[in-house]
Amino acid sequence: MSFFSRKSFFSAALLLSIPLFAQTNNGDAANNPDRNDMEALRRWIQDKRMVTVKEIGGDLSLSGEVRAEFQDASEFKNGLEQRRIGSKPPQAWDVEVNIMIDYRTDRTWTSVKLEFDNDMGISSGKTDKIRLEKAYAGGRIIAGDTFTWDAELGRRSLGNVYDSKVEFGSLFDGFLLRFSKAFEEIGNFYLTPGLIIVNDNINHYAYVTELGALQVANTGFYVKSSAVYWYKHNRDVVNKYRYCVLQLLPTYQFYPDWLGKRLIKLYAAGLCNIMAKPLRLPEAIVVGEPIVWRTYSRQRFGWYAGFSIGLIKKAGDFAFDTNFQWVQAQAVPDFDATGIGRGNAGGTGLYTVSSSSIEKTTASAAVGNGNYYGFEIDGLYAFTNNLTMEQNIKLSWTLDRDIGPNINYRQWEVELIYAF
């Protein structure tokens, strides 16, 4: 054990011991050190439970969601249906519970979200799928009238911070800074640089940032520009992480009288992986024989465009969004994709046979989450202030049929959401 490790261990043990040393003991318990320590610990925990949020200050909130979901999907790969009973079925039922805890003071805050997402079914269902989706703490370093500077550390989704329809689907384990500045006649500007822990076993970190301008010139015009750098030179995963994706997302939103002053938002975005090299995939993998490569032009671009109407705030509200997506094979890494995708029932990557494998795929088998064009339609309606129904439709087709198999993908999903 190193000196630093020993020192850390000793410090932690000392801190944990302080509450025990602080207790007084009498009677027979004083003659039993183990019992004495346990009783002291119980009393200390009980005392801590009696300290209320009112006494320590700040605001504590507890909220949650219960979701019941049904999916009906079809995926034709070179004309053959891939969704089969017994493997990845065409129909699926899920039940999900999300528990959110938030605590905030004047200058600090923390947020926690636990997700319990399980398949339904007496024999096919699951009961043990628990995920720590969010756990971070933050504080305000500078709190000015027109300028603020915040810092946050912990876990969440990249999509909770950065805006995109086709990327930012991976976990954001790391450190985030938020800078914001308001100009009365120009608009509100922000910058959110972040450091992402990808794999600490090989000292792999990624870097991400987004620069945004909101309500430019006091209008409904918004523009966001983001960049995420995933690259780490490693001979086993060099292609998997050869990504530096730039995105530009302009948006215009307004509240027309003819639609009851409901929100209408128009948006479009373009993406480019500036690190993409010409795509090379092996024709076949035969042990003991040299690899024959098939080379394609760089597949580095993507774009999407759409519009949305409405917001869900109370009973009777509705919201609707539709968009078109066009994404080349190398535009977004498989592990970070959030777009319509291709279904990909087999979980085959663009470069490797699966997301967790280093075994190379082939030109005829490569799939991934890019190389498609398609439509997505999403609608929500609030039956009550708590109960909302969401319906989602996804349709996609293969963009370049020379790369991997030809896949046609369809999915319809309906979900009931009870929020409390």
Task: Describe the protein in words.
The two termini are 48 Å apart. 10% of the residues lie in helices and 47% in strands. β16 and β17 (318-327) form a beta hairpin. The chain is globular and about 70 Å long. It has 420 residues and is mainly beta. The protein is built from three helices and 20 strands. The protein has an 18-stranded antiparallel β-sheet that branches. The chain folds into two domains: 1-50, no CATH class; 51-419, Porin (Beta Barrel), CATH 2.40.160. It has helices spanning 3-21, 33-49, 53-56; strands spanning 59-77, 80-81, 91-104, 108-119, 130-143, 147-157, 171-183, 187-191, 194-199, 204-214, 221-229, 244-254, 264-273, 280-282, 293-295, 301-309, 318-327, 372-382, 387-398, 407-419.
> Ends: how far apart?
48 Å
Shape: globular
Task: Spell out the helices and strands N to C.
Answer: HHHEEEEEEEEEEEEEEEEEEEE
Q: Specify the CATH architecture of the largest domain.
A: Beta Barrel
Q: Mean pLDDT across all residues, rounded?
A: 87
Tally of helical runs: 3
| Structural category | mainly beta
State the domain count.
Answer: 2
Radius of gyration from the alpha-carbon trace, in angstroms: 26 Å
| CATH fold-level label of the largest domain | Porin
Percent range for β-strand residues: over 45%
Poorly predicted regions:
1-7, 9-30
Q: Share of helix among residues? A: under 10%
- What's the level 1 CATH class of the largest domain? Mainly Beta
What would you give as the CATH superfamily of the largest domain?
Porin
How many beta-strand segments? 20
